[in-house]
Amino acid sequence: METTEVKYRIGNEKLIRVLDGASAKLRSLLERQGRPGGALRVAVIGGGCSGLQYKMDLVDGPANRDIMVESNAVRVVVDPKSALFVSGSELDYSDDLQKGGFKVTNPNAVAHCSCGESFSA
């Protein structure tokens, strides 16, 4: 069985910074899934009422060409195209019943929709 080396870059918190609430929730989710060394993949995809939206998944680690950022004791991976849109962002988490969940504060977003799930840059 041949294993191929994954080629990725190391980024820093200038790309994306994970705040305390998001860090605690991510560590808990990764532990529950049995992959404490895993990471959160943050991607920007077309869609939503403002044109772009975030997609987040728990993954085992970076894929080829990804940028990996270690922030607040968790790993976040971002593909190069999405990195253009999320640069300078902060990721937080809230338990609020109506507006809870992971939230991205993105300085590149010039417009947001009222649902808070999509943006334009």
TrEMBL record:
MF GO annotations: 2 iron, 2 sulfur cluster binding; 4 iron, 4 sulfur cluster binding; iron ion binding
GO biological process: iron-sulfur cluster assembly
Domain (Core): residue spans on this chain: 17-116
InterPro entries assigned: ATAP (IPR016092), ATAP_core_dom (IPR000361), FeS_cluster_insertion_CS (IPR017870), HesB-like_dom_sf (IPR035903)
NCBIfam families: iron-sulfur cluster assembly accessory protein
Name this protein carries in UniProt: Iron-sulfur cluster assembly protein
Species this protein is from: Terrimicrobium sacchariphilum
